[in-house]
Write a structure and sequence with these properties.
There is one protein chain. The protein is of the alpha+beta class. The protein is built from 15 helices and four strands. Helix 1 packs antiparallel against helix 3, helix 3 packs antiparallel against helix 4 and helix 5 runs antiparallel to helix 6.
Length: 484
């Protein structure tokens, strides 16, 4: 009882001060914080000595000790009060310094570390607020607030450890929960069985032996059930690929922008399988990442209809390699991720094709404008001037008028040829008259004196849409022109 009087103080004071100072990596932010750490240790030491010297005959514990109880160490109200007052002041200074260090770490942090520190910072602030309120509010509410305040920080750290994967303790956590739950269950079943059977059958009927047999029969199915529950709590849906697939489908359906699909897929896999890192790679480069990279990486190839489309990379905590159902869950998820990656490829190809189509349309319009503005437009304007000039010559100089009309006829034919060339460029008539292979052959024949061009085409060329036929013709024309 004497040990319990003072041992609680170092544990609580060091958690509220020194642990905050070195959280989350176990190291001080810098050497300048050593005085704060020393202050935290001093507060724990002075408080422990003060509580150890506090007499048992004080009013707040009256009736707690047996009548014949005596401290095994000297006790003094005056000395204990002085030490406790000093330790409280030193504790406040250490707490302020530790909170300052935690806030500085939080402001400089990013990613998963920032999420971890958010919870701990909230827990620490709740601790301070409730401690201050508990000291000024009378009993019984005051001590209750102090007790709740002491719980806030451990709860916040538990959230940082479990939910945000701090310190990679999944293996230890899962084993502790599994065997801790089994131990409590076995003891409870054994005790209840002994009690009930002893009441029903009598004390000398071998109730402990029967209870042991019941526990032995129930331990294996209980182990399997508890393990599934614990693994789901710690590792998510590794043991239930169907649930992971349902969640993945729901995430895909809820994604608003196509470019966010792969990022949502990586996030969904990471959260459902409780792994710290998920990435989707294409040609060795990550295109979607969730979490922070870790040392242990699992790579699952992604293939769609026999072709490699990328790699699914999953990082696991130290000592937590994917095994059994976890690996099977990933392999069952991989084909669905491959479909998403392939869809992203097609979406990007479609976007690039759309951009090229818009660029080609703009170029075509620019070419038509240039030919109409710089070619046909000036030609028609010149023809109009010649017509006006011929009108003046009629009746005065018939020979000059005839020559002018001859020139106008030639210029009009040239203008018609220009218009026909523009129309032919829009859709060459050779395609309608000859078909694609013969039209390309006609193109090649124009360069017969300069180049040796061979045109090969299957005899049973399938019918293709007009836009595709025109595109193929223009590609061939551009290639021949470039070669020439």
């Amino acid at each position: 009882m004497w040990v319990s009087e003072w041992l609680w103080w170092p544990a609580h004071s060091l958690v509220a001060t020194l642990l905050l100072l070195v959280f989350p990596d176990g190291r001080l932010p810098s050497r300048r914080w050593r005085p704060v750490a020393a202050t935290a240790v001093l507060a724990a030491f002075l408080g422990a000595i003060g509580w150890a010297l506090m007499p048992a005959a004080r009013s707040d514990v009256e009736g707690l000790y047996p009548a014949a109880y005596e401290h095994p160490a000297p006790s003094s109200f005056a000395t204990a009060d002085i030490l406790l007052s000093i330790s409280l002041l030193v504790f406040v200074l250490a707490l302020v310094g530790s909170l300052t260090a935690l806030v500085r770490r939080f402001r400089r942090s990013a990613g998963a570390e920032r999420q971890q520190l958010e919870w701990v910072l909230v827990g620490a602030l709740a601790l301070v607020v409730l401690l201050v309120a508990g000291f000024f509010i009378p009993s019984p509410l005051g001590p209750l607030l102090v007790g709740i305040g002491m719980v806030c920080l451990p709860v916040a750290m538990a959230v940082a450890v479990i939910h945000h994967r701090l310190w990679d303790i999944e293996v230890v956590l899962s084993r502790s929960l599994l065997f801790g739950t089994l131990t409590v269950g076995v003891v409870a079943v054994y005790a209840v069985s002994v009690l009930v059977l002893g009441r029903l059958l009598g004390a000398g009927t071998g109730a402990p032996l029967v209870a042991t047999a019941l526990v032995a029969v129930a331990i294996q199915p209980a182990y399997q059930r508890v393990r599934r529950v614990v693994n789901r709590f710690v590792y998510g849906d590794r043991d239930d690929p169907a649930s992971a697939l349902r969640h993945l489908g729901a995430r895909l359906g809820a994604t608003e922008h196509p470019n966010d699909v792969l990022a949502d897929v990586a996030r969904a896999i990471g959260r459902r399988l409780r792994v710290p890192y998920v990435a989707v790679e294409e040609s060795g480069a990550p295109v979607a990442v969730w979490g922070e990279p870790v040392a242990t990486l699992e790579r699952i190839p992604l293939s769609h209809r026999g072709s490699d489309v990328g790699t699914l990379v999953v990082g696991t905590a130290a000592g937590d390699r994917l095994r059994g159902t976890g690996r099977r869950a990933l392999h069952e998820l991989a084909p669905h991720v491959a479909v998403v990656v392939r869809a992203q490829h097609l979406a990007r190809d479609l976007e690039r094709s759309h951009e090229r189509l818009l660029a080609a349309r703009a170029d075509e319009r620019q070419r038509l404008r240039r030919e109409l503005h710089d070619g046909l437009g000036p030609t028609l304007a010149a023809l109009a001037l010649e017509v006006d000039r011929g009108r003046l010559l009629v009746g005065r100089d018939s020979k000059s008028a005839m020559r002018l009309l001859d020139g106008l006829s030639s210029q009009i034919r040239d203008a018609v040829g220009g218009v026909r060339a523009i129309v032919d460029d829009l859709h060459p008539p050779a395609l309608d008259e000859l078909g694609l292979p013969a039209a390309v052959q006609a193109l090649a024949d124009r360069f017969a004196g300069e180049l040796g061009i061979t045109v090969e085409a299957p005899p049973d060329l399938p019918v293709v849409p007009a836009a595709v036929e025109l595109a193929a013709y223009r590609i061939a024309a551009e290639a021949i022109t470039n070669a020439a």
